[in-house]
Amino acid sequence: MSMLVSMRFPPESRFALRLLGSVILAAPAAADLRPADGGSDVRSARPGVAETEPWERSALEAQDGQPAPTPPAPAPPPESSSTPPVQSGGAAPAQAPAANPPAPAADPAAPAKQDPTPPPVDPVPPPANPPAEIKPAPAPEATPPVPAPAAPAFPAFEPKYRTLDSVQLLLAEWTKLRADLAHPLAYGALADGRPLPALEFGAPGAVALDQRPTVLLLGGLDGRSLAGGEAVLACASELLREPEKLPPEIAFLAVPWASPEALELYQSGRAIDGRNARPQDEDRDGLLDEDGPDDLDGDGLLLQLLIEDPTGPWARAADPRFLVRAGPGDAPRYLLTMEGRDDDGDGRFNEDGPGGVVLDLNFPVGRRGPWTGELNGALPMSEPLTRSLADLALKRRVALALFFQGNHGELAIPGGFAAQGAGPALVEAADRPVFERATALFRQATGRHQSGLLTLRGARGSERRGAALDWFYAVTGALSLELAPWGPRIEMGGEGGGEVAAENARFPTEPASSVLAPAAAEEDRAWAAWLDNTRGGLGFVDWHPVELGGGAQGLVGGWERNTRFDPPPESLARALRGTPEFVKALASALPRLEIRVQEATRDGEICHLRARVRNLGALPTGLAVSARRNRALTPLALELELPAGSRLIAGQERCALGRLLGGELSADCEWIVLAPAGSAFTLRARSEWTLPVARELRP
Amino acid sequence: VRRSGPVLALAIAALVPPSAAAQDPAAGSRRYTAAPDRRVELDFQHYYTGRELSLALSALATAYPEFVRLEPLGKSRSGSDLLVATVTDFKAGNAEDKPALFLGGSLGAGDLQGAEMALSTLCELVQNHARDERVGEQLRASTFYIAPCLNPDLRAQLFQSLESSGGLGSWTASGVDLERNFPVAWEPWSSAEEARSGRGSCDPGPYPLCEPETRAIADFLLKHPNIAIVQLYGAEESAPAASSGEAFDAGEVLAADRASYGALCSNAKAAVGPVLHCIEGSGPLGGRLLGFAGWQLGAFGFTVGAGHVDPATGLALPPVNELAQLGRRSCQVSLQLAQALAHLALGEPQLARLKNDLWQVELRVDNPGQLPTLSAQGEAHQAGGPLRLSVAGAKVSAAALSPPGEDAFRTVIPAGGAARDSLILPQLAAGGSMRVRLVLQASEGASVKLELTSPRAGRASATVALH
User: Fold this and answer.
1) Directed axis angle between helix A11-26 and helix A54-61, to 10°?
2) Contacts of A283 in chain B (CB under 8 A)
């Protein structure tokens, strides 16, 4: 088995599958096999798709605490072990003898008796000479694994907060060092003409990068997550450092600063909310950006401002650093805004500051009503960079879209808003097991303690209509995830490196309730615990009075930069830990197709052909949401190319096979063809997230 | 003009010399005997090809330069021009300073006849400016932005199919449905019911305004805040009120403006029959132009019915011999809508000297129109711009106003920063009024200009000499 594994899976794939095996062990079988609503088995419920493979079931049936099962390497019989030509390449003849005995018997971890499907029968051609009868077609679609040349030394990646220029320089250096694998990706430019820093790379292969299934790594699209940008750089660096371990047939697009103008504004302290530089008339008075924030106390920081107002929606919590929604009887009440004066004298403070639009919220899914001055832009997709990113994604076959941003410290799935009434949830029930697998991989790779699926709304603590994450899932059909490198619990536990553990701290956290004032929100308490226990409380500027002019007063205070939203520089490496491993595991788990010929016989000019498709990857061939958007879409199809002079008697040239889950084998496709002797047929399997694979048959 | 005749036979675009009526200085006073000012002969007994339509619009703009200016709105996906005619009496003020209607035709398969209806409206307006007092008044007071064909690619495809096979045959729409591609309540997928029903494409596109046509329309509407009404065309049968998913309920959303809609629909019904459908009766609005206009822009949205749905094709394609009559009727409805637009009026300012250089000016502000100066939707979402009173020639030391329905005066903070030269006033309901009291600082003998502006109600001004 291990030999088979080593032949079929590249090293990073083995890592992914080991993780996956552990995941499967840890996860309840129902979570993997059934939709969360308790419906029937997703796979067996779908017509035309064969049952789960034995390796997968044996893994599912294993007990917790056992070693991870052997990676799921399906071992087809010799005549049907038609590894996709692209994958077998020159190794195909070497595989043939090894595959002569029935494959299940070769794998003690997956006993043949558990396979409910009979071993594939392939009476013709004779097993003695399979290569002469069933030849791999010269399929340009596929990428033969090309041995990587000795790569020059790649510098170790050092996480630190970089400027846009230094990110550009770093990518340029990497492009130079890995010129055979990577090149700059031009998909958008800043308003001042500077190019957007982006890199495209992948393992060497015959298929151009822009034709391959794509893994998109986006950092800081929210305009604030500088740590997200560093996470993308860390992932790209790790992948480029060992090019021989790059998953084959996949392209990576790394965009560390996906919202560069906003990140520059944020980094400079001129904005705190992720907005870009585009002027907006937030207060609709016909003037642009006329009332922005000011540093009232001259401390060099733009923080927040509390103004006492009987109609204000906020009250101070028992821990007076934090605010809570004011309830009946709560007093005093406050209006909350950014630090600054009423520059335009309209009685409102800082309601129309410089900029801007948060690109991450400039997408259309879930956005219903008109713009009311929020940071999501007057119109969805109003920003050129938003449209450029969307157009890029639509041109490519994006299988994974990973957003590195936020400060929840967890992995969020699409769902930035609650379903309305009885309306359907954004994430299809049939896709939940896929997200559960990804979440389990995340846990394994990062060591974080996320207990289950977390929607974007849940992770962020409020609605995020118009989030890019939701658009990528709903429209491109990509497995879309938001990974927040930083969060209040990242430094809990104090594992290694002399980090401070919250559990060992001297500072007590706020009690759950108080008779004097309401308790702070759970998230605030978590951040308070982190701040007090790891930073000695430094990093929060306590509310202090300031003059607002005309006799009015306010309170200024709030979190300093690089505390709550981005980690302190010394905590950055800890925040990024495990993210490259997660990306590698997920990318290596992407599907790959294999055509298995069940029958290829000839009786005079009448040919009988029967074949199946197996998904060799651990992730499905696509998500169910694609079919919701495009009802005519067939996620997986096996096509028969007829030779000249032949005629199809039965069967369809394009056999739709639905969607294959990880390791799954499809139902049969059958054809009867009238064809002259010696004719060669080509079978070609296509799916959303894989390169096409082809096989030539001469029955 | 023959329906399928070559371009050379395009009598529709033939310029004719200004008619006797046009040269008749007394034409405006003769309501019964004056002939229309017909400078271009257009035929309304056939449907126009894209090229014919462009030529007709060019001919009208050339023949009536004092009333029509033609400009490109954008291009379709296949490169055809989208044209919009700005129709107003340019001698009576800038087009963008007057409240406006946007008339859009042929946006989808459901309003193929819209191009002819819009073109007919344009003709009726410019030919009757002198002999019909109502038309002349509306051209002076309002602006009509008329874009007869917003989806030329689909229109060409449909007519080609209809004329080549005598029906739609197996034709099905492909590509993005423009009426699912506007931003408000856009959804990435159509409902299963929509996908099963009809021939129309239900593809909303990968994101709102991804199509050049929808982007051009939205950009135009956004750049013209004076557009208070968006009017499309459709069948006389109101659209089915089906809804699914997050498609919003127009009735609920637009309840605050229901009275305005109701009044205008009643007027139209009394005049020409039940052909004016307000935004509420036009079906689910997710991704639709009227939804975008009504909810995002705070404009009033209407569909004018012209012809009935042909059961054979599922299209509202009136017989060619009815087009002229339907066109005239559509113009009547559009004129009624224009008459309902909000307008501003300033009463005679009352002046009193308080002390030395301090003066009190009190004036009355009225909206005699049938629509508010901004819809409730527009007001709720701060779309459409404020009602502003600007003062030139004096500094506003203090201000107060008596809002509609109240006698007491409330303090108003002057706007304009340090200059303190303007006031933002509350929007006025249909027929509403308010009083404004200003304390001005200026020397005796100064001339103070008071100007009231609202993007959707125009402007009014008065001058006060301080003495």
Assistant:
1) 50
2) 382
A98: pLDDT strictly greater than 70: no
* Residue among A286, A368, A424 minimizing CB distance to B185: A368
Q: Please, are residues B400 and B437 in contact by the beta-carbon 8 Å criterion? A: yes
Instruction: Nearest chain A residue to B292 by CA: give it.
Output: A370
Residue from the list B207, B295, B385 with its beta carbon closest to the beta carbon of A369: B295
H helices present in A104-241, as ranges: 130-133, 164-177, 226-241
Q: Are A402 and A225 in contact (CB under 8 A)?
A: no
- Cβ proximity of B310 and B318 under 8 Å: no
SS3 label, residue B74: strand
Cβ neighbours of B218 in A, within 8 Å:
379
Contact A286 B385 (CB under 8 A): yes
ipTM: 0.83
**Surface-to-core class of residue B230, CB atoms within 10 Å of its CB (0-12 exposed, 13-18 middle, 19+ buried):** buried
Per-residue tokens: B84:
């919009």
Two tokens, residue A694: 């082809």
Chain A, window 476-495: residues with a beta carbon less than 8 angstroms from a chain B beta carbon: 476
What does the alpha-carbon distance between residue A360 and residue A276 come to, in Å, rounded to a whole number? 11
Lowest-pLDDT choice from A236-245, A389-398, A502-511, B185-194: A502-511
**Mind listing the pLDDT tens digit for each residue in B41-92?**
999 999 999 999 999 999 999 999 999 999 999 999 999 999 999 999 999 9
Q: Give A-chain residues touching B386 at CB under 8 angstroms.
A: 284-286
Q: Choosing among B382, B411, B420, B454, which should be mutated to test the A contact, i.e. which has the most A CBs within 10 A?
A: B382
8 Å CB contact of B245 and A423: yes
The closest CB to that of A346, out of B188, B209, B413, belongs to: B413
Q: Answer yes or no: do B207 and A285 touch at CB < 8 A.
A: no
Of B30-39, B139-148, B207-216, B303-312, minimum mean pLDDT range = B30-39
Which single residue is written with the structure tokens 């390497």? Answer: A73
pLDDT tens, B119-171? 999 999 999 998 888 999 999 999 999 999 999 999 998 888 888 876 766 66
Q: Which residues on chain B are in Cβ contact (under 8 Å) with A366?
A: 246
| pLDDT for position A221 | 97
The answer to whether B314 and B270 are in contact (CB under 8 A) is: no
Residue among B89, B84, B11 at smallest CA distance from B46: B11
Whether A592 shows a pLDDT value over 60: the answer reads yes
User: Of the spans A91-105, A145-159, A449-463, which averages the highest pLDDT?
Assistant: A449-463
Chain A nearest C-alpha distance from B14 (Å)? 43
Q: How confident is the model at residue B115 (pLDDT cuts 50, 70, 90)?
A: very high
Q: Rounded CA gap, A273 and A276, in Å?
A: 9
- Secondary element (H or E) of residue B258: helix B258-272
Other Cβ atoms within 10 Å of A451 Cβ, number: 8
pTM (two decimals): 0.81
Cross-chain Cβ contact A474/B297 below 8 Å? no
**Cβ neighbours of A97 (radius 10 Å):** 10
Q: How would DSSP label each residue in A457-474? A: HHHHTS--TT-HHHHIII
Nearest-angstrom CA–CA distance, B113 and B331: 14
- Least Cα distance to A143 among A592, A691, A694 occurs for A691
Whether residues B192 and A631 touch (CB distance < 8 A) is answered with: yes
Give the Cβ contact number of residue A647 at 10 Å: 10
CB atoms within 10 A of CB A295: 14
CA dihedral A463, A465, A467, A472 (to 10 degrees): 120
Q: Which of A346, A378, A631 sits opposite B195 (nearest CB)?
A: A631
Measure in Å the smallest separation between the Cα of A387 and chain B Cα atoms: 9
